[in-house]
Design a protein that fits this description.
Length: 299
């Protein structure tokens, strides 16, 4: 995933995805508070016993809250961390990441908690917090509006607190495992996007290159012989030049071999992924993609 510079003119204007997510949560809470009441919580919050009858709650639980302060804290976190992350990515990518972390939080909660409701945007917000910390680890926040704390340590602190309370089984009414699931899903996603080259990047790196002459380049040009003085130093220069030339020949041969023999197959695989998804690949096509990905990372 690539990060772009923040536009100074947009500093005080909420980016669209953060704005939309906050608006949806606020509107749902307003309707819950004024019109529907607790029925909104029953329809949108997740409860294990209702999973087969209300499967949509695995997503909608993120948009309903238990009370004003629950909503306010989550929306403050989304506002605080989300706008800079969204500007660094894209609005669509940010929204998808938020939802992915929320679903990951739901899945981890499902694995460890068997009773009660799960509701609130915390898992998605924690994933956004992690993305912020991984990009700007030395930025500081004021913990409890008083204590300055670097983002990298803030994430560690919150994760440790959630892990301690989650494992203790204390009935705090907080979805600690959902928070941890948001962190874990965000970390796995960000690690995968960093180590896995994008389709476009693969295309650019594997594009056709000009043919390289078959003749091996000479370490020392024939038309410019060096004087024979200081023979020891000249021998050392020649040895280094030969080593550099050998590396260049090997690298050029590899590039030429890959670009000529596999670029067409790779382009076909990338087109297939774009149209049908990664799951449509055969074992041979997956092997080719993994081979090219390793070559790209090592080159």
């Amino acid at each position: 995933m690539s990060f772009q510079t923040t536009d100074e003119q947009d500093r005080f204007r909420l980016p669209p995805a953060v704005q939309a997510l906050i608006a949806i949560n606020v509107v749902i809470y307003f309707v819950q508070l004024t019109v529907v009441g607790d029925a909104m919580r029953g329809a949108l919050a997740f409860e294990l016993s209702q999973l087969t009858r209300e499967p949509w709650t695995a997503v909608t639980y993120m948009f309903v809250h238990a009370g004003f302060w629950h909503l306010a804290v989550n929306m403050y976190g989304l506002w605080l961390f989300g706008q800079r992350v969204e500007r660094a990515w894209t609005s669509r990518g940010f929204a998808g990441y938020f939802l992915l972390c929320g679903i990951g939080g739901w899945l981890v909660h499902l694995m460890f908690v068997r009773n009660g409701f799960l509701l609130g945007a915390s898992a998605g917000v924690f994933g956004v917090m992690l993305a912020y910390a991984m990009r700007w680890p030395d930025d500081e926040i004021l913990l409890f509006f008083v204590i300055p704390l670097k983002m990298k340590w803030a994430v560690v602190l919150f994760a440790a607190i959630d892990l301690a309370f989650g494992l203790s089984g204390a009935g705090t009414g907080v979805g600690h495992f959902a928070h941890l699931g948001g962190f874990a899903t965000g970390w796995l996603y960000l690690r995968w996007t960093v180590t896995t080259p994008s389709l476009e990047r693969l295309r650019q790196r594997m594009s056709q290159v000009p043919d390289i002459p078959d003749e091996t380049p000479r370490a020392i040009p024939r038309s410019h012989p060096r004087p024979r003085e200081r023979g020891g130093e000249i021998d050392e220069v020649v040895a280094r030049s030969n080593a550099i030339t050998a590396k260049r020949v090997v690298g050029s041969t590899l590039t030429k071999r890959v670009s000529k023999s596999k670029v067409d197959s790779l382009n076909g695989v990338l087109d297939k992924i774009s149209k049908q998804g990664l799951g449509s690949l055969t074992a041979e096509e997956k092997k080719l993609l993994e081979e090219m990905s390793r070559w790209l990372r090592d080159s």
